[in-house]
Fold these 4 entries.
Entry 1:
Amino acid sequence: MKAAQHGGGAGGLVRRMAEQRKTLGAIMAEASRDQEASESKLSLVDLLAIGIGSTIGSGVFVLTGNALPIAGPSAVVAWLLAGLVCLFSSLAYMELSARLPTKGSCYVFSYHGLGELASVIGAVCLTMEYGISGSGVARSWSGQLFALTGNWWVMCYNGGAPGEPGCNGDDDFYFDPLAGAMTALCAVVVALGTDMGKLVINTFTAAKICTVLFLIIAGLSLWTGNMFQSAATFAPTGAAGIVSATSVLFFGFIGFDEVCCMASKAKDPAKTMPKALAGTLLGAAILSGTAQLALAAMVPWTESMTSIAFPQAFGQQGWQWAKWLVSVAELALLPLVVLLSILPQPELTAAMSEDGLLPSVFRKSTRGVYRRGTIIVGALLSILAACVPFSVLWDVISIGVLLSFNLTNASLVQVRYGNGGSISEPRINGLVWVMLGAACVAGFTMYYGLMQPLMAGDHLQWPMSIISFVTLAIAFAAALAVSRCEVKCDMRDPAIFKAFGVPFIPCLAMFFNFFLIAAIEPRNLLYFGVFLVFIVGLYVAYIVGKRGQGDCSAKSERNIDVPQVDLVDTPASEGESTSGSSARNT
């Protein structure tokens, strides 16, 4: 599809990037090459270890303590509701990972279903969720080490002393060499290949699950009071507290989609990926919810209570040995989250490189391992972990995660109704964007018009409330119009998981995700917007430079509209293969 078809100038270029999509033939060809290149495969157990290992962590060790003052014992219900909301989005990941079983997750889903521009936005969101958040976890790990030992090996940017305000675990405005070293070590493990990686991951995940089971058993053995005495005892802050806790605990499930990025290394990914995603969500919900029950049993709710973690709870009960055991275990196991955050990043950069959006060095592989790309990514993330304060970035990362969920939901609807690989159904394409836009307005106005005043005890903002219900109705009206159209993808293949309730469940998921985005501080929404515009601007400049080389060459390099039958393998040299090279030669 050439830019000339849409006229010259910036408008034509943006429209071309919005409409240009990656074909199913190109995606399946990449998936086939990746399966052949990777000697060691990830089993269902390996994928579950990746999913549960990346999901169970802050949810149990941090968010359970944050949710208890908000909702009391009813925070257990909030975990179930948060898991249900997350399930709505996970259904889209399950089906698309079966239909498009290759690396890249939301990036590839968006490229196939929404267009090249949306895929770049998806890649930015995934980079925040994976690599950048891993660097932040490394800084959190070093902060916990400093707090546990009392020794701070950092250099404060404000010239103050380590541990003081502005240079502590809450305000990390300091140079952190330990965080950089931890990130670099995890990158080395990823570069060593799948066998070494899954050995470390499976071992650490098993240890993490054992630690959570200890928290549950020890916490329940210290049960104090009767949380089920009355409704007021179980839910002291009422329905508003449960909803507020749900918005906090939703982020305890972040990471379940990471397994999608490892599809190229999985055994029979079309069958395995949906099972891995479902198992990750189920395991995370059971372990996190039960841990919340144990904490609530150990620490009765009081109106003046503040956030409390398991180590402090054990200390209050006089179990000092348990306090130190849990603190040391958490410190020892947190590097697993760093490792799992880095693990999918080279897969993402390789997928982008195969499409011509990054230099070719990122797609060069040795027996399916992108060592050069991993080294480059690891070096950049190590610098990020050592130098950049994350106290202002966590909410920005959360926005990226939720936006990637919505891109995946919208992509599923497009693929189901004939717009995968090209815009064959313009009416469907328009309805999906109406659905996405209306869900966005409904989510924000519902939060500011209803939820925020409800939590603050203020009067409801009726104009915003009315707008929220009207736009939500528009979103579902668009979904209803889509549902009346003919499904134009394979629904008979028993090997492919089919999400239920399409397009209504994806529409509902979009609304909930935008609602959660609205709860994030407006300043951080602005930061995210500026960062996204900057990255997309760089991308547009890159594409403009590509146009100077000719539209046809640029198109083939990005695997657009390349028939699978025309793919020609490029010979590897010196034991290395350039993944994606065959898809770029026609």
Entry 2:
Amino acid sequence: CPDTVCANCPRHPSCMKNPQTSTCNSEVAVAPWDPLGAFWRLFSFAPFATLTIVTALTCGTVWTGWLETDVLRHHGYVELALFILEVTLLVCSYLTAILLGPGFVPHGWEPSTEELLSLNGDTKKHPLDMPIPLDDRLQRCGRCKSLKPPRAHHCSSCGRCVLWMDHHCPWTNTCIGHSNLQAFFLFVHYVPVACLHSFLIQSEVPASIALMLFRHQHRKFWKYIRRVHTLVTLILWFASLVITLLVGSLAWDMHWSISGNITMVEELIVDKAESRRCRLKQESFAFPYDLGSDRNWELIMGKHWLTWFCPARAQCNGFWPPLRKGSHPFDLSMEQLAQKAYKLSASFIVPVKKEFAGIGNQNCCCCGYFWCRLLCQFGCGAACSGPLCGEPHLVVQPGDQVLASHREAHWFFGRVDTAAEGTEGWFPRDCADVDNIQKCQVPHQRQMQGEWRTSRGLIIKVSSILVSVEETAAIYILKEEGGFTKLLGCNLEHCDGQTARWSNGDEWHRQPDTEKGKHSLELEQEPKKNV
């Protein structure tokens, strides 16, 4: 790394912390390494328990295969070296996954000016003749208070946004993401290989027991079964079988994730995208980072054969990964924004008329005190259908407006309108003013439904608060700010159901064939009066 701080240098720590020079379009850009976080991850209970299990299985296998003389077959030193090599690679991959960490998004991250200039696409296919604002292209984390790269997701256990988050692994005490994905992939493959080898070696003990029973050598059987070595070996033999099956199934899933260059979180996003687009009859969603199985393997595991077997640092850009042909860097993040907007459009605004401060410990609702207070305050119905253990309560005051996304017979789930995302919880229906529940809408939403033709000749389809352009897969969102409907930062100045005029000078005219069904989607989503 050169001594001078340069926007084109992704490996320099100060480049990563500066919001204006945080990442670049280079081949490799990784999140900065946190040595203090690595120390706390390593010296915790999960690594201690994991390494203890590995040590026990290793010692038991060596004892049975090479130190115990009463065995069915002889195990040579070549097999011993092979087994030690498997365990060594397993431990190295495990420690690398812990020490590297998943790659957290730096606090205050945002794309640099150079990045935005290089990533801005052609505005000819946008619904308005305007560049897309940053908040319409990237998600903003309500907990970290910063923007998220397209493949980043917030982990509630780590309390940070993680690049390429796959899942939170309790055995590594951290998430699996961009920086440690390759090391974790090797770890979950070396575990079933080493455990299967251990299982085969220790299988000689149950095989000897079965042979004694078959030959009716009962005296020898009882003497053999009472030995400490026999009992310990049987326990480790069963443990190695269970670990092989459990971790082997995870390794199989990870193999398909690597071949498709898609994480577990992104699989859920793609499934939701296909379901939503099929329901709204929009263009199908193409995952933008699937480059083909061979290219995906090289991207994550590296091009050199040595990195296919030994753990190493990430081999690709974690902020702006390579894209498949025809995709845009913001396709995935804009799809997630569209999913949140679609969920919001199906929500309703619930006024609060009675205070609810939460009852008992929200992390454990199994105590009798909790149910007694719930029964006394809100009746038998709320007590019998209350939230499960660990589900949060929402503290509300009279006059609050709650955006409710789910409802049960006696409970609502949502967040206070002025609160940030991630603060959702349950509150009783008796606290809500059910007679004044309203649908969550933007101004002129009903008049905007249907197909429109822009002044530039584009065909626009509006479904709920989602806007799409014909022959494109991108989704744009209608927002409400200051009492106005906004799209791409422009205000809707006039809409009478036939003509829509925007503050940038663009005009939309309704397509004549969509007049009959322009309110169909809105009518389908109207809440029942007796909620």
Entry 3:
Amino acid sequence: FFLSDLIQTMASPSATPTRPLVALSSDGKTLACVPTSVGGESGATILRVLLFQVESGILQTTLTHRNRPDDASVLSRPLKIFFVGPELLVVLFSDQLLAWDLNRGVVAYKIKGKSSQLFHDGCIASDSKNGSSLYILVSADESGKVQIHQYSASDGKMERKVKAGKGGGACGLGANAEYLIVRHEDSVRVLSQGDGQKVSKCSSLNEKNAGDQNIAIAKNIIATISRGQIVLIDAKTGKKLSSIPLDKTTTTSARASFELWKQNESSLILVEGEKVYQIAVSSGQVEKTWTCSLDGSLERQFRLGSGNLLVALLLKNGNYQVVSKALNSADEKIELSWKTPEDTKKEKDEQKQAQKRKQQAAVLGPAQAGGEALISEGPMSKKSKMEMDLEDKEDDGEESPTVGERLQLLQQALDEEELEDDDDGHAMGLEHDLPAAAGFTPKKATTESLGKILEQGLQSGEDRLVELALAVRDERILMETCEELSDNLLPGLLNALTSRLAAKGSRAEHLSIWVSVLLRTGRVRSIAHLQPLRNLIQERIEVFPDLLQLEGRLSLMTRTD
């Protein structure tokens, strides 16, 4: 399937593009990205983390961290981000760790290293008895000794320290319920989770400057880079199972760290360059290979996944787009390319057409819920249409348009509208908000008709019906409609309003009426449902001073001219 969400990020013109850090939750439902770390006023640093909802492709939350006024430290570029279950996101720096509570959108706790310590890598492991633990690979002192610090994932409290060998070049850490694995410059050391004792060791890897995140473990199979190959190692014995040459068709600038995850109990998925491999857990051998071509027009592209899902984060002209596809053993190639608005519209139209064919051309009346569709064999009778709230008057004995024809005309009207504020932008009904198209003039709304149209639009995902409902501005009708709307539809309505506000700020004067009325009903109480709206407002507030300063400069230039 396909999903996408475009986000325009703001940065200083002189800023150098840096690689985004990307992580996917274990259930594959949330994707996190750190696009950049931008120095702020007076040496302060602002860190932003974008959270995408994978199923819908919507930017769900933007997490923002700013140092306190009394904190003079400056955040360095993050080393790694990773999820701890669905409720916690960890950002690792060279000298500290931030753990975000995703339910509340705040930093739950910090872990700071000593001045003599340096953080190299971090990971998470879950145990059915003891819950989840955080692990940080730390250079303990100048002697080159390396330790693994274990913390409770729930509160960040230190639990124990585990010796992990000595010698420079420690650069990677991985863990699962049984093992801790440490990648040194020339070897991989496997330790027991229980007592921290060495279980096995794989030597003679000889890969200097292997880079960040160059080691991973899934189902007791370790993957790491050595001599231009990805080496697969048995964690229990330390023996090499197989090796896969690095994809030579991938340029250095387009190459990202490989990703390894469990597809199912018998197979793993390994992604590197333009290749996607299915690996047998029993033997460590490649069973299936897909080709997933990289788009040369993109600035950056990263692939990761969970289960049978392959997800890509694409970067082009400062915009991020998330695309996703399920793996199919019958395919030879996987297409995860940049989607233009025309491509997105075309795919949505094809999906709608397929859905319509599947439903045997069901036509919904404005007073019907999604499961109460009328099967239309031809034009609707005048009697049926008169029973609906949006019927047109008969003209010279001719039949009025069918509901399907009405929606087509409405779409034409919406396409012609530029959605800009007009002088008389305080209309009280539908007839003042949409231009007439092909002789179509919507009727003034009532509470009953508005409620039915809004309910049908939210249930069926029909943007045309939602737009028709949102064109109403009579606060009395809006209040009555929001009070009578089903509880399960309220989050969908709030999301529809938020997405439209984010897409075009000029609609704020109109849509803010809906938002205000909906919130005044007191029926939206979940913080999770309000979080996207809160983040949108916070982002607009943050950029407002810069925009105000720009307006002042432009005004000064205009006066000078």
Entry 4:
Amino acid sequence: PKRLLFTQSRYVVCAMRCDHMLTLCAMSVLPMGVLASSETLSCDPRDGIAGVNVWLPDDAGYDEQRKDQYSKWLGTHADASARLHPAIIAQCNSEVTVQRVLAFAKRCSYKVVIRGGGHSYVGLSSCNTPRCMQLDVSHMNHTSVEDDLLVAGPGVRLVNFFKFMGNHSLSVPHGVCTNVGIGGHFQSSAYGPLSHAHGSGLDHVVGFRMVLANGSIVQASRHDLNATLYRSVLGSSPGSWGVITQYSIRGIRDSDVPRTNMVRAQWLWNRTTFVAVMKHLHFIAKDQEERNKRDMRIILFAAPPSRASDIKDRGFKMYIRVHTLWTGVDSGDMTHFWKELYLKPLQDLSPMEYSDDTTVLSKSTLLTPWENGNDRYAMQDFISDHWWGEEFVNAIADYLEESEKMLPDMYPSFQFNPLGNQSQWTRNAGMNSLPWRNFRSYADDWMFVNKSKEHLYPQAIQRMRDFSEKTRKLWEFRDGVPDRSTFMSPQVNLTDLRNSSIARQFFPNMTAFRQLQLFKAELDPDDLFSNPNTIPLPQTGPWSSSPVVV
């Protein structure tokens, strides 16, 4: 693209003519006087970034700031400490301060990673190289609403966004972990209890404001004549393109989904019960798909309680929990027919707790803080384009039965989240860059190691790997697509998209991935925004032998 020079004018309308696209965009740039003052020319971050909170490794408070990440519990303490060690932490509270930080980073040759809520399981919102800085937008947490249009900053946590939406009888699909920041969440998946009936949260993003690597501010919308930026940013790889400073998201009104019903059931761990529950949940998911319905969403957890209050009340034992959400988007009320077909078999298994509640959609997502007592974790996915058979269900049961016997030194959190090819998640394929739309059975397999038993962590990792490899033929994709299981342990370069085999795991359509690389070269030719999972430049990606002229 044509380089945009800083001017005294606040707003500039420009046309970017690129090799494979033409984008009209409205941009604002920082006035020359703000960027050209004497102190902004320094590469000392204390002097060179005006109006920004800055922490360096020797500063008081640096350790607290750098470890404000969920991945501080990934691997051993030493692993986490080494991984979460940016050279600079810069905390922004406005678009202007974001521009100043990016100007500093470009001038002084720093790479930039972006932190919203710090919930990346593998620590991709931090870094540990000498010329890498973390740009923290957690304080950009404004919210507003007009009719059903929600406006929110990237630092808003899901727990606060959920409450805000509920106060206005609105909903948007999102995950269930309270401290996730929406900045990365609405770029990556926003997958949760509403996804079966309403797709990804990304699908509800109408537009966003973003600061690009050159300091300009662009406003992208799904209604743009050329929506390349909008479609590329949503669903590809968070942090690749720029710093999102504001989302506009279309909410779902409670009045539009008036037949919401939520059921919760819980059993003390028992292998036989687990197998029976898993088989029935598979039946529900398959039956919904065969009927071409999006009414019933189901989630299973096999884990001990995570919250200290629950552990005190129930003891540190393993439970099987099922949450179902009926939205009735296709069938209306949950009639006696559906209750007999879907719920009675669960009741017949004699749960120790069972509730069946009529609710409103905006109150139906069960958020959890996922407290884990500072225990260490590893995690892998099983994502399949088919429904799991009895052999794999029994293998999972055996694996969890062995895990249950390891309490309290090690313990699992197995989370089964099936969808199906009739779900709105799948129907919305193509709305953005989100690549993993066509799955049926899906589970997150977490393993936690007691914080006082760190020496057992390698054993936990190896056990997970062994189970994955032993059962591979039972869960891997059957359409010729490479393994889509992402093993999230502290291994080096496990998410590095410059590696073609890894890139194919995340982006099975490599033609689409190539287009993302070309667009990355246009927006960020110096690869300012860079972490081990950002879209790589064409020269550094799987096709590095084929130079690209941009």
